[in-house]
Each structure stands twice: as structure tokens, then as C-alpha cells.
Amino acid sequence: MKVYALNVSKGKGVIKRNCKSIKLINNYGVENDSHAGKGDYQVSFFSVEAKDKNSFDEVGFCFSRFIENICTMGLDISKIKVGSTVKVGETVLVVTQAGKECFDNCPVKKFVIDSCEANTHIMFAKVISGGVVYPNDKIEVIQES
User: Fold this and answer.
1) What angle do CA 58, 61, 65 make, to 5 degrees?
2) pLDDT tens digit string along 106-134?
3) Are 83 and 145 in contact (CB under 8 A)?
């Protein structure tokens, strides 16, 4: 299980850009990311396998409007529960939300709501111990909820 790619957004509604590294700040999130803050959605995760599995479904907003901070490889996000602790490289995060609600106007929402990748392969976390994260850093669940 590892980090596949990293992304940061300079403004809400602005497409995230791919990065060579990101800095996670305790109880804040990704440095210079517009979605960072004191809330529960400091860092977002999405698995590359879910994206690849459903690449035919790029009309869904999961693929065109939602870009995660950390794209994972080999991590089954659908099995991770809220409250679990995850180590990403040298950083530690606690999962605050498993799944993401579909965008209201998503064109596939009415057809695949039970199997939408946003509902099962996206999660959000809060930074407990910050540091720098790089592609290929190891990801491990160190405490399950």
C-alpha cells in the first residue's frame, strides 16, 4: 500500500495540481491547499484502482470535479472505518469520513448510487502528526476503529 500521486488546490473550484510532495500540518491539513483548515476534512484520499476500474464512467463527477490530495495504490479504502488511524510516510492521520456524497447534479447519480466510487473509495482524514509526504511513501492502517 503506497502513495500513488499527490495534489494541491490553490483555490476552491480550482483544479488541483499534481505535486512532487505535500506538507501535512497538524490539525490543519495540506499546506497551501484551499481545503485545509481546522475541520474534519483536512486531507482527502481516493484510490487509483477505483479510478481505473471505472475509467469508462468519466461522466461522473467523481472523476471530473473531485480531485484528492492523496491518491493511493493497494489500499482498500472501502474497508477503512471512521476513527481508524493511518500512517502515510512519516505522517499520522485519523479517518473522519468514509465515503463522499455524490454531487447533486452528477449525471450518473440516479443510476449507480449504491455502487458509486465516491461512496466507497474516497475518505477524509485529520492530521494528527504532520510531515512531508512523497509519491511511493508507504501507507498502513496502524489502528482500526
Assistant:
1) 110
2) 666 666 655 566 677 889 999 999 999 99
3) yes
Q: What is the 3-state secondary structure (H, E, C) of the chain?
A: CEEEEEEECCCCCCCCEEECCEEEECCCEECCCCCCCCCCCCEEEEEHHHHHHCHHHCCCHHHHCCCCCEEEECCCHHHCCCCCEEEECCEEEEEEEECCCCCCCCCCHHHHCCCCHHHHCEEEEEEEECEEECCCCEEEEEECC
Domains and CATH numbers, the chain: 2-143 (2.40.33.20)
- Determine the average pLDDT of the residues in 35-45: 91
Rounded to an integer, what distance in angstroms lies between the CA atom of residue 131 and that of residue 133? 7
Q: Using an 8 Å Cβ cutoff, are 142 and 86 in contact?
A: yes
pLDDT in tens, 60-107: 555 556 788 999 999 999 899 999 999 999 999 999 998 776 666 666
